[in-house]
Amino acid sequence: MEEKKAGRPDAGTAAEAAPEDYLRLDQQICFALHAATRAFGGLYRTALRDLGLTYPQYLVMLVLWEHGEMPVKQIGAHVRLDSGTLSPLLKRLEAAGLVRRERSAADERSVTVRLTADGAALRTRAAEVPRRIAGATGLPLAELADLRGRLNALTETLDAAALDGPGCD
User: Is 113 exposed, middle or buried (0-12, 13-18, 19+ CB in 10 A)?
Assistant: First the structure.
């Protein structure tokens, strides 16, 4: 059996770690996720350049390609963006001729977004993006699927903890 080293945060439970190790940058899960997100961001910027999309625009297009016409509020829920961020993004997609926004006749407060023919056609060109990203990770598809599942579960757990408020032990 492998011997645990005292004071090492990666050597057992969090309770066994030395207090000074808790505040080391290299021991922060949030920083590891932040760094990975920034690395993915750079990779996506390159992969999406030919499509003329930013990463958040790509996420919106993924939702519309998958689900079709949808109210802005539902798009925001899917991509985890608020309307203040989503509205200018949708305006730019509309200016590029990829989507159309229309106010609902039944509820003036609701705006529905649908793909244009150009937006729908862009899907074919975008199909290569996930393959490029997956290949760049160097991970087998099964490991990527496992990682995605674990990150989704972590997100759910953190969302629930955030609802509990400060001092969520």
Answer: buried
Residues 85 and 56 sit within 8 Å (Cβ to Cβ): yes
Q: Domain limits of the chain?
A: 17-136
Torsion over CA of 121, 77, 41 and 149, rounded to 10 degrees? -100
What is the distance between the alpha carbons of residues 149 and 158, in angstroms, rounded to a whole number?
A: 14
Say which amino acid occupies 47. Answer: A
Quote the tokens at residue 151: 């990150």
Angle, helices 83-95 vs 72-79, to 10°: value is 110
3-state SS record for 79-134:
HCCCHHHHHHHHHHHHHCCCEEEEECCCCCCCEEEEECHHHHHHHHHHCHHHHHHH
Phi-psi region of 32 (alpha: psi -120 to 50; beta: other; left: phi over 0): alpha
Closest to 44 measured CA to CA, from 153, 129, 134: 129
Total-model pTM: 0.83
Q: What is the CATH number of domain 17-136?
A: 1.10.10.10
pLDDT digits (tens, 9 = 90+) for 119-158: 999 999 999 999 999 999 999 999 999 999 999 999 999 9
